[in-house]
Amino acid sequence: MACWSRRGCDPAMQEECPHAIDPNEQCPVSCLYAKCDRPQHLTTSDPALFFNASVDRNAAAKGGCTMCAFFLENGPRVL
Q1: Helix H segments across the chain?
Q2: 25 belongs to a structural domain
Q3: Structure confidence at residue 54 (pLDDT)
Q4: Separation of alpha carbons 48 and 5, rounded Å
Q5: pLDDT at 25
Q6: Residue 79: inside a domain, yes or no?
Q7: Could you give phi then psi for residue 27, rounded to 5 degrees?
Q8: What pLDDT sits at residue 71?
Q9: Best label site of 9, 25, 61, 67, fewest CB within 10 Å?
């Protein structure tokens, strides 16, 4: 399972989490459990990555992934 498709909270927490009620809703960047601690996570400000229209941002479970260079370079693409 790709890192961007995982929520940061465990299954018991997801039952009560307002972000996890709708599976299409991303956990906001401000959510304590949405913080990424993976070594490949790197927030980017590179416009070429940030504005790449081919990235499927809806595939990210966490809002922070949509600003991560690893996700923007390796994540799923819109067909």
Answers
A1: 11-14, 47-50, 69-74
A2: yes
A3: 97
A4: 23
A5: 83
A6: no
A7: -70, 130
A8: 97
A9: 25
Q: What is the pLDDT of residue 74?
A: 96
Q: 54, 75, 53: which is closest to 64 by C-alpha? A: 75
pLDDT along the chain (79 residues), means of 10: 85 77 82 87 95 95 94 94
Q: Which amino acid is at 29?
A: V
pTM: 0.84
* DSSP per position, 43-56: B---HHHHT-TTB-
Number of domains in the chain: 1
Six token digits for residue 52: 């790449």
Q: Which helix (H) or strand (E) holds 20?
A: none
Rounded to whole angstroms, the Cα distance separating 78 from 58 reads 10
Which residues span the domain enclosing 29? 3-74
| CA angle in degrees (0–180, nearest 5) for 24-77-64 | 50
Cβ distance 63 to 71 under 8 Å?
Answer: no
